[in-house]
Structures are given as C-alpha cells and as structure tokens.
Amino acid sequence: MKNNPASSIPPAQSAAGMSVTEALAAMSRGSLTSETLVAACLERVEQRDGDVRAWAYLDREQALAQARQADRSASKGLLHGIPVGVKDIIDVRGMRTAFNSPVYPHYFPSMDAGSVAMIRNAGGILLGKTVTTEFANREPGPTMNPHDRRRTPGGSSSGSAAAVADYQVPLALGTQTSGSVIRPAGYCGIVGYKPTFGEFTRVGVKQQSGSLDTLGLCARNVRDAELLRTVLIGTDYRPAPLPERPLRIAFCRPPEWEQADPAVRRRAEECAALLAKQGHHLSEPALPADFNGWLRIHSTIANFESARNLAFEKTVHRHQLSAKLYQGRIRDGENITLEQYIAAQREAETLRTFIHQYMENIDVILTLSTANEAPIGLDDTGTAVFNSLWTLLYTPCITLPAGFGPSGMPFAIQLVGRRFEDEALFAAALLVEEHIADR
C-alpha cells in the first residue's frame, strides 16, 4: 500500500496540515486554538498510526489538558500551543521512556530532558514519545514509511520522521550519532536538521557516543525547523533573511559516491545544475585521500564509547539486547584498544581542521542525504554512509525534499554548512528550498 501524505490531508481540511508558522499566526488571530490543533493531530494519529506506528507512548488527555492550559495562558512563547513529538531516548517527565528495549518496561522519568524543558518553557505541547530503534542503534522498531508501508522510514529517529511526514505532529525531536535524523527525514520527504556539534543540550538524552551524539529535529519546512532551533538554543527569534548574493556551493562526491543508486546521484546532480542555472556559483572541489578512512574513524569512536555507555545494559540485561546491538556495536567496541580510540580521535580532529579550510570560500556543500529511495523491508533502516562523515566533522546539516524517485518515494539532498555558522546554513537552505520546490 502506498500513501502520499502530502495529498491525503490538504491543509485546508485540517489544522493538522498547517505549518507551525501558519498555526501560530492563526492562534494569534484567534481563528485557531491549541486545543483544536492538538485534537486534530490526535485524530490524525487515531486514523493513521495503525498503518504508520510512529508512537511509542501517547497520553491524549494530558496533551489536551496542556493545550487547554495554553489557550488560557497570557504568556505566549515561541511555540505557544504547538504539539511536539519526542524521540523515545529523550526523557519527558511523566511519560514512559523505553528506548525500544525490553530492558526498561516501566521507566517513567521524574525530570524533563533539557531540550524538553525548553520546549515546555516556550509553550510547546508534548504530544508523546516517538519510536526509536533499540537504544538508537540498528535494531528497528515497528514504524513504517508513511509513503509506502512496505518500506523503512529510516532510523534511528524512525517515529519522529514518520509522524511529521504523516501530519501526525508538526515538529519532533530526534538524535544523530551516524545518520539518525538526516536519513529518516530524507526517506520520509521532510526537513531534517542536525546542528553544529554541541549546540543543543543533551542532558536527559540516553548517551551512545558522547563524542558524536547530537540532538536534532524534524519539520515540514525550513522556517519551522528554524523556529524550533531557536527554542533549543534559547535565543531571541531572528528569522534568517534570504541571502543577498548568489550562493557559493560546493557539489561534493564523497569517497562512497558510487555506492548510491544512479537515480539518487542523478537527482543531486540535477539539483546542483538547477541552482547553477539560477545564478549560484557551483564548484566541485574533491576531498583529499585522507578522507578515505573516515568511516573507520567514525566507527572506532562510536563503538568504543557505546560499549562503555551501555555497560549496565550489557552486564545486567545482556540476554535482552538484540544481536545487532550486542554482537555488532558493543562487541566491536570492547575489542577496540585505548590506543586505537585515541588515534581515531586525533585523526578526526585533523579532518575537522581540513574541512574548515575546504569551506573557507564556500557557503554550503551540496551532497546526498541517502544512498537510495527508502528500501523495501523493515528489518534494516538503510545505510548512513552519506551522513556519518558530516556527523564526525561536527558540521551542521539540513536535508531537503527534492521530489520523488522511480518508485514514487521521496528524494532528498543534503546541505552542509560551516561549523558554528548554522544561521548561514538556514539562510542558504531557505533559498535552496525555494528553488527546488516542486521541480
């Protein structure tokens, strides 16, 4: 069964179809209430989640109670009355956090994660917990791609991407250690954003790799993502203006370029050509041979740290861990020596220094978000080979929908910005989004 949510729920027919900025404007005018918006999202969940299975935990009455309180409140934060989904490795006070694992069937945190507290303080409504892969690793949950239930939504932020794509919630939090925000957002045809490493607080988020884990977010357009980013960094909202000069874009073919399907590569090339035709400056500087070993560097750091961060689970609940997690990441991490780990950290710092120099006269890198259209089958969430490099380099990334492929599934492109220049990346993404929409 295929379903294109973009056509199945026109915005005119339901508040759930509104963008965040549209909903906030309607609430400001008095033509929409938070209760109506939350009820519309919950109705959409009721209609669709039997097919999509994006949610690990929902408390409908609590969400509606939060919405009614928002409608009575005189305080108007940036997300006043807007429902948000939260990946189920992030603590929400009073909601079960299960990590998609039988190890934690009854864990109800007494405190919010830092990011969740900031969303509450901005007036956001915590709708529920979205499905994650097991401890944000490789063992999938039950979530299906809303465009085609036979296909993976990607991972590990599976439920967050699927719920946003299916109009069940307008915004959701995810996390990324390899490609866990950008890839599922790409597969599901929405906007995904991973910030410069360290920009978002990770307090209250289950740690996998302290050197790589990054909180991220899912939205349906760049402006909505920008708004949630502002809340998560705790600054005043200053919408990024469109760039006043043509962008300097580097079209990047990383070492694994040939691993991507030809149709995906071709679509990225078409987007690059379209942007050049629009007057932007396109170049194709190659990455040096030093980058050929980046995947080993990433896996060494991630696996070494994961084996130690999951010490309790592997010691006390080893029989409840999947083979993909225990025999894969944990066992591999146990066999990595301290010397190998330190060497990998040093190599990573060298690559970060180089990418800073590589981008000195570049506004954004344009590259692939995924290696393919979302694959058929739910046993695997797809390769992160076109995401993990940028996670390792600590650069900010945004994935944008870029049409549909031969199988009718979303295509996507990824924009990579300079480290600590996320605002400039958003400005570029707004312009690129405008250029490639419906092309």
TrEMBL record:
Annotated source species: Sodalis ligni
Taxonomic path: Bacteria, Pseudomonadati, Pseudomonadota, Gammaproteobacteria, Enterobacterales
Entry keyword annotation includes ATP-binding: no
Signal peptide: none
Database matches in SUPFAM superfamilies: Amidase signature (AS) enzymes (SSF75304)
Entry keywords, A to Z: Transferase
Keyword Transferase carried by entry: yes
GO molecular function: transferase activity
Entry protein name: Asp-tRNA(Asn)/Glu-tRNA(Gln) amidotransferase A subunit family amidase
Classification via InterPro entries: Amidase (IPR000120), Amidase_dom (IPR023631), AS_sf (IPR036928)
